[in-house]
Hints:
The structure is a single chain. By secondary structure, this protein is of the alpha/beta class. The protein contains ten helices and seven strands. The chain has a seven-stranded mixed beta sheet, sandwiched between helices.
Amino acid sequence: MATENLVYERTEGFTDTPTHYCPGCTHGVAHRLIAEVLVEMGLIDRTIGVAPVGCSVFAYNYFDTDFVEAPHGRAPAMATGIKRVLPDRIVFTYQGDGDLASIGMGEIVHAAARGENITVIFLNNANFGMTGGQMAPTTLPGMKTTSSSNGRDVETQGYPIKVAEMLSTLDGVGYCVRRSLHDPKNIRMAKKAIRMAFETQARGLGFSMVELLSTCPTNWGMTPVNSLKFVEEHMVAAYPLVDCKISDAIKQIKI
Length: 255
């Protein structure tokens, strides 16, 4: 009798709770990468995640690790408090562009400026996903949203904020990069970046952040396949996949 070879299974870093995300959304991919990295590093049992307000508001249901829920935009402040009280724990925030770059912009900037030894996973899908697809600080010029029906007009609504580049100017930041989740090659690169971000924290080398370009097929009005093409053809052009800042000490880490 022929036997089947198991090539992929649920990581031990997940619970068995089905996610609520829309079909084609890459939040699930990002969750998987984080959980895999924490398990592979042996950190899952001493990690505390901080969930945001946004599409990933229920992230605490999916990771098999301790989690807390933060008020809208305040995940970096909550993570700061947890890390200072429990410095032996690995503490990370998981935030979307509305939560981090709009209402939470002050929180993320000051946490980075202080060099808080936390890790931030930042999902950039260029809109407010949970509340109906309004324009976000990361919405591309000319991109139509429910609150910019004619497309983002930079003359009246300004230009997108490149968060990774901005935070990389701060002395407290040790590791800050941008990756994407639109194809297998870039997903592998994203996983390596997430691993390096957690290594940065584990070694006490300062604030770390990985920005991940993500999809939002529902609010973009696209099929899942076309949303991946949109990331590749438009979002990567606006948000280059670059290493914005890697300190000399982190460059010496081999993974």
